[in-house]
Amino acid sequence: MPALCESVYAALATDDLLAAGFARLLLLTDAAALPALGDQASAWSYYQRNWRPGRPHPEAWPQHYATALATVRAAVNA
Fold first, then answer.
1. For 58-70, how does the pLDDT look when each residue is reduced to its tens digit (9 = 90+)?
2. Widest CA span of the chain, in angstroms?
3. Which of 35, 51, 57, 67 would bridge 39 by S-S if both were Cys, CB 3.0 to 4.6 A apart?
């Protein structure tokens, strides 16, 4: 692996801004639009398709989604 790639991978572990930037770039690779706020089922599909979790936990998704949705709505209303 080239030195630059190694540096980026190492930085991703500690640099939240860099990680957020790469996360945004990943979402841009999906031709589908972001799911509508509140569409939990479509958000689960979007999550699985883009993040490809090794061992997904669908039983935990409703609570995690509710927390994320509340955070986004609070930020929009701030």
1. 999 999 999 999 9
2. 44
3. 35
DSSP per-residue string spanning 14-66: T-HHHHHHHHHHHHHT-SSPPPPTT-HHHHHHHHHHHH--SS--TTTHHHHHH
CB < 8 Å & 24+ apart, contacts of 45-50: 50/26
Place of tokens 């030195």: 3
Report whether 50 contacts 39 (CB < 8 A).
no
Tell me how far apart the alpha carbons of residues 76 and 45 are, in angstroms, rounded to a whole number. Answer: 24
Residue located via tokens 């949705």: 69
Q: What is the pTM of this model?
A: 0.76
Contact 42, 35 (CB under 8 A): yes
User: How deeply is 42 buried, as exposed, middle or buried, from its count of CB atoms within 10 A (0-12, 13-18, 19+)?
Assistant: middle
